[in-house]
Structure formats: structure tokens, C-alpha cells
Amino acid sequence: QVQLVESGGGLVQAGGSLRLSCAASGRTFSLYAMGWFRQVPGKEREFVAAISQRGISTYYADSVKGRFTISRDNAKNTLYLQMNSLKPEDTAVYYCAAGLVPGRDRVPYSYWGQGTQVTVSS
User: Fold this and answer.
1) Buried b vs exposed e over 56-84: b needs ≥16 C-beta within 10 Å?
2) Helix or strand run (H / E) with residue 95
3) Per-residue pLDDT tens digits of the chain, which is 122 residues long
4) CB-based burial of residue 27 (10 Å sphere; 0-12 exposed, 13-18 middle, 19+ buried)?
5) What is the Cα–Cα distance from 68 to 81, expressed in whole angstroms?
6) Rounded Cα gap, residues 51 and 54, in angstroms
């Protein structure tokens, strides 16, 4: 099993920035595509961003394009999400996930972290 642990969430004012990290255990991190999803109470978990195994290809939800950047450091077994120009509607629990392909839904992802809370005040 791959263990994923998110960190870096917190409270920030609208227009501010946060950088989320997802630390992965094991020696096979580079074999997985990775994704970020987010969820608010009463709604389905939604796609935010994804990245291919070597970090060459990236994918973003329209709502975060131009503001968020997904990246990874395979030597450190770590996934990142740089979030700039944050908006109150970005408030959610953010989850990282590992899978075979960088899909925009949950189907390709086999492993999930526990989530980290991001709260953006207006």
C-alpha cells in the first residue's frame, strides 16, 4: 500500500497563497500519476489538478487554471500544490491521490490521503 499524508493547509485571506504538500511512502512514488481533489460539506469530491508520473504533463480544473500549480519531486516522494490568488470558494478539504493515469475523476486513483483543511476568508 502507498501511504499519502497531506500538509500545509490553514487559514488565509482572499488573495493570499498557500502551498500544500503530499508526502508518499514507499519506493514506487515515481510510478504513479498524482492528483489533487477537494471537497466541501454536502458536495461531491471534485477534481483540482493532476500530474503525470514524471511531471511532464499537468491538468487543471477550469476553476483553478492560472492560479494553482501542481508539481512533484520524485527524489523526495512529494507532491505539491501551489495555490495563489485564493478565493473564498476555494475553501475545502484538499486530498491528494495516486493512480495509474492523471484522470479528472476518482476512478483511476487507488490511494488517498486523509486530507488537509484550507479556509479562505473574505
Assistant:
1) eeebbbeebeeebbbebeeeebbbbbebe
2) strand 92-99
3) 789 999 999 999 999 999 999 999 978 899 999 999 999 999 999 999 999 999 999 999 999 999 999 999 999 999 999 999 999 999 999 999 999 998 888 888 999 999 999 999 99
4) exposed
5) 7
6) 8
